Every structure is written in C-alpha cells, then in structure tokens.
Amino acid sequence: SFCREGCFSPISPEACPLVQSFMCHNRTFLLDGHVQLKTGLQTQERHLFLFTDLLVVAKSKSHSHFKLKCQARLCEMWTAFCTEEVCEGSTDPERSFVLGWPTTNCVANFRSAEQRETWLSFLQSRIREEKEKDYPKSIPLKIIAKDVGTCAYSKTLSVTNGDTANDVILMALQQLGINGSEKDYKLWVISGREDAPYPLIGHEYPFGIKMSHIRDAMPHGSKHCACPRQLQGSFLTEQLPQELQCQFVLKPSRLAVCQQLNDLGQKSCKRKRSIINWAFWRGPGTHLDNAPLSSTSAAPGKLFGLLLTAICEDDNLPKPLL
Q1: How far apart are CA 73 and CA 8, in angstroms?
Q2: Cα radius of gyration rounded to whole Å, the chain
Q3: Looking at the predicted structure, is the pLDDT value of residue 1 above 70?
Q4: Torsion of CA 19, 22, 28, 33, to 10 degrees
Q5: In which region does residue 305 sit, left (phi positive, over 0), alpha (psi from -120 to 50) or beta (all else)?
Q6: Are 85 and 201 in contact (CB under 8 A)?
Q7: CA 276 to centroid of chain Cα atoms
Q8: Is it the case that residue 70 has pLDDT exceeding 80?
Q9: Residue 284 predicted with pLDDT over 70
Q10: Which of 88, 90, 116, 114 is nearest to 99 (CA)?
C-alpha cells in the first residue's frame, strides 16, 4: 500500500526548484507522478519527473521540495514486464512494469492501472524517439567468454542501440562458433560504478549501458546530452578511468551448467566445485574477471573456514546460504 505521509505531489511541478534546475532551451517538462520502486525485497517511495530526454527520480520532502535521487537519459533506458525477476513478492501486473537504466532494474508500481498505462505509453514513446537521435547508431562491444570450453575468448561485436542483451548473447555465440541459446548463457556486466559484477536479465540494452559510461567520461557540459559532438569513433575505444570502465562477460547460466552435469552424469569433485563457486561470482569486481577459465582448475572456495565441498550435500549449497 502507498504511504500517506511523505508522498507529496507538487502543487505546480514546473515551479519546483528541482524541475527548474533541469529546464533548458531544448528540454521540456512532460509528466510527474508518485510511484513505488521495488528491487529485490526493497520498496522505496519516489516521485518521477519526466522530461523530453530525461527521467528524474526524487524523494518527496514537501509539496515544493524534492531531493534528487537519480536521473537517467531516456536513450539509455528500457521497459519490460518480467517483474518476478526483479523483485520479491507478488505485484499487480495491471499497476506495474519493469523500468530500467544502466546498472538498474526496478519494478515501478503505480496507484492505478490508468497511471501505469499513461507512464508506460509516455516512456516507451520518448525512449523510442530519443533512441532515434542516438549518435552513433552502433558501437564496437567487446565480449569476453569465460567458463566456455577450455580457454577464454573475446570477440568484438558491432552492437546497435536496439539490440537487447539476449540479442548480443546470440550474436556472440554465433561469432564464437558455440552451440546454444540465450537461455544457456548470461551476459554479465563488470562496471566501475558497482561493487560486484551483475548478470543482465536479457531485455536490457548493452549499447545504452556502454554509452552511459562513455557519456559520463565526457566534459561536464555535454554529459546529459544524448549525442555530444565529441562522440567520435576513436573516443569509443579509448581507455576510460577505472570507475567509468564497463566490461561484458559471457558465462554459462547456472541452470545450463547444472543441466550439462546431469546430462553427462559427471559427479566428480572438480566439477562440483565449479558449480559451487557460481554462487560466489558476485564477489568483488576483480573476482569474476580473474575467475578460473576452466572447471578443472577451479580452486575450492571456503565458508567460515570450511571447504564448500565439505558442507554441500549432493552438489547443493546449504539452504541458509541460498
């Protein structure tokens, strides 16, 4: 249920200092409204302000004061409907949808089905129009394949602003000559903005994720612009500062790995370790990047000083850990 206190709506949105701070000659204010943003077990009461090229997420303090929490360029955003993949517990599909931008997926839950339809329609329309303004329309994207075969591969693909993570997985598999589908693999992102690597669900736009890192490295005046003039081909491949770097890693999904083990009937200790270590992929950023390239060389992880192989029965992690 929506909170009654602290969920203020501005009497005149255009007069809000926060809205005023984003207004400029080529940006128009379009829509505002209260929303619950849910990720995992967390629910946050937020107020959205939609502009022609930006979505601003704020926290209500009063009818005139809103604290900026984050902002996203619409050309780097996406919408989806896989709510069960993003948050725990049931959500009313008639009042919610998945809203995302680089390094974030959340379920946007509105007060009514009408509000949900209005926001979904506005966002999809504006995201589509802002993507049409994208420059360049495609970029080189390096994909590193790990735990695929006996060594690491990398391929640089030409990815457009309309390619989803699942599209990129299929392209990478084809380029690498690997049989499989997007269900068998996950595309992980190692971002300097995050403490740990994270897997994409499949609907996200790797183009937008990469471009957000590149745009954030631009001179201050052009950061919020969808297509700053400095975005030349050479800049796309230049080395970015650590906190703005972004790597894409292709790895077998856990279900695919388990299925392979079941099919092959391989129950060796070394194979078990590779599965068990999967639970620890989301460790520090360097952990995934430096992970063993083949299951036969995997060193066993430890939990409270005990070998994981000693506390796991039938290749299953303990329930509290899961």
Answers
A1: 24
A2: 22
A3: no
A4: -40
A5: left
A6: yes
A7: 24
A8: yes
A9: no
A10: 116
Q: Tell me the mean pLDDT in the region 257-266.
A: 56
Alpha helices in 133-183 (DSSP H): 165-176
**Sheet arrangement for strand 138-145:** 153-160, 138-145, 246-252, 185-191, 198-199
Show Cβ contacts of residue 159 under 8 Å, excluding neighbours closer than 6 positions: 138, 139, 140, 141, 168, 171, 206, 207, 210
Average pLDDT over residues 306-315: 72
State the chain's mean pLDDT as an integer. 80
Alpha carbon 174 to chain centroid, angstroms: 23
Bridge partners for 46 per DSSP: 35
DSSP SS3 for 80: strand
Instruction: Tell me the average pLDDT across 3-22.
Output: 79
What is the model's pLDDT at position 296? 40
Residues 6+ apart with CB under 8 A from 287: 196, 197, 280, 281
Domain at 138-219+232-266: CATH architecture: Roll (3.10)
pLDDT of residue 223: 45
Tokens of 187: 């595309």
Least confident of 129-138, 185-194, 246-255, 274-283: 274-283
Domain boundaries, the chain: 13-133, 138-219+232-266
* C-alpha to C-alpha distances, 123 to 48, 113, 302, 313, nearest whole angstrom: 11, 15, 46, 48
CATH for the stretch 13-133: 2.30.29.30
Q: Locate 198 and state its tokens.
A: 């994270």
Please identify which residue in the block is written with the tokens 């990047």.
289
pLDDT band at residue 304 using 50, 70 and 90 as cut-offs: low
